[in-house]
Amino acid sequence: MDFSFTHEQELIRASLREFCEKEVTRERVREWDENLNFPPQELWDKMAELGFFAFSVPPEYGGEGADMVTAMVAFEEISKASTALALAVGATVGFGARMLELGSEELKGNVFPQLAKGKVKFSLGLTEPAGGTDILGAISTYAVKDGDDYVINGQKIYITGAHVADYINTVVITDRENPKRSRALSTFMVPTSAPGLDIRLIPKVGVHACGACEVFYDNVRVPAGNLLGTLNNGWYELLNTLNPERIGVAMISLGLAEAVFEDCLSYVKERHAFGKPIGQFQIIQHYLADMAMGIELARNLIYKCAWLCDNGYPYHVEATMAKLYAADVALKAATTGMEIFAGYGYTMECDMQRYWRDSQQMVFSPISQEMSKNFLAQCYGLPKSF
Ligand SMILES: Cc1cc2nc3c(=O)[nH]c(=O)nc-3n(C[C@H](O)[C@H](O)[C@H](O)COP(=O)(O)OP(=O)(O)OC[C@H]3O[C@@H](n4cnc5c(N)ncnc54)[C@H](O)[C@@H]3O)c2cc1C
Q1: Which domain holds residue 103?
Q2: 96 and 225, same domain (yes or no)
Q3: Are 371 and 293 part of one and the same domain?
Q4: How far out from the chain centre does Cα 205 lie?
Q5: Model confidence over 57-99: pLDDT tens digits?
Q6: Is the dihedral of CA 227, 229, 235, 239 positive or negative?
Q7: Which end of the chain is more exposed for a tag (fewer CB within 10 A), N or C?
Q8: What is the pLDDT of residue 53?
Q9: Residue 114 maps to which CATH number?
Q10: pLDDT one-digit tens code per residue, 324-366
Q11: Whose CA is nearest to atom 39 of ligand 1?
Q12: What are the pocket residues of ligand 1 if the criterion is a CB atom closer than 6 Å to any ligand atom?
């Protein structure tokens, strides 16, 4: 067994870390959070110069086609610097690049080179107001063929980054006659400039700099050539993106926990009570030890998933565990961080409250902790409980 990273991966880590220290500073992250500012295009351009977006683009379309471990090394540094930035770029890389691989040669030839340059942004439009866990039961947005186009009507909700996206990969019903929803869905790459599309930002508790939106489709027309994958097979094709997405969200959670740990470690050395640094009290030391252990375990699980993926092994069980566990580690770390920082942690000038707010999102999205456990139990042969 070899747990080490390659020389190239270490170089990528070092260059992303240096980039984040310079460009994704605490001050900037705080300002984005306070003003609900999506990370600016200028930052996407600089990340593209570093080759970040090219990792997810196949070499034949001007990318690097990096393996999952390498992509995760880069993503860990981004996630540590800013949860919002990680989610923002993660949506484009995770949903955009992965689903575009299912598109026509023309779509891939047009969009992949732009994606590698950081010039296009993607969202995934799956969840609907009737529910996110039971997607197949809740979905009602549909598309009907009309000449060379499909016409979409319906509504999506909580769509990350839709307000700034160039495209929303929208999952719709394309066979309304089929009672088996899993065989009736398709995904279309919908340009946000399409007439009939209305996008509204939803005020939310955390990850302010990466907004989530309601999206209304009123006779939105998309060329049939914007279909990603095979007509009516969208559900099964979507499932292929879920495991990488779970690893990505696990990494965002891990980055958050690592940032919490670093802040806590510094603070307990500086803050005094009863004439000593609070880091001298055993209970505070135990808090830090627990956090460090959770981080180490989550990190090992995430990189193991990435390794399994790169080496062609199944990893659906591990990817679900990684999302579940890392989200829990982040939530617990941020909650403990609030205890350690106490009064100061509760003020808006302290980053701990942001970590704490941000950590809540990974608990239920993209899959809730409860549903993750349902899935794991079923993987071990237990009957479906719902
Ligand atoms: C900020 C944010 C960003 C998001 N980004 C996106 C995005 O980019 N694209 C997108 O398509 N969606 C997105 N989502 C949607 C997200 O994936 C859903 O919120 C999530 O799947 C949960 O769905 P729900 O909120 O409707 O909860 P519900 O489905 O209503 O679930 C409510 C509760 O019931 C529990 N529950 C439901 N069924 C079961 C069961 N069988 N057994 C046990 N417990 C159960 C759940 O675990 C949960 O605790 C986002 C959501 C938010 C809030």
Answers
A1: 7-120
A2: no
A3: yes
A4: 17
A5: 999 999 999 999 999 999 999 999 999 999 999 999 998 999 9
A6: negative
A7: N
A8: 96
A9: 1.10.540.10
A10: 999 999 999 999 999 999 999 999 999 999 999 999 999 999 9
A11: 371
A12: 123-127, 131-133, 158-160, 204, 212, 361, 364-368, 370-371, 374, 386
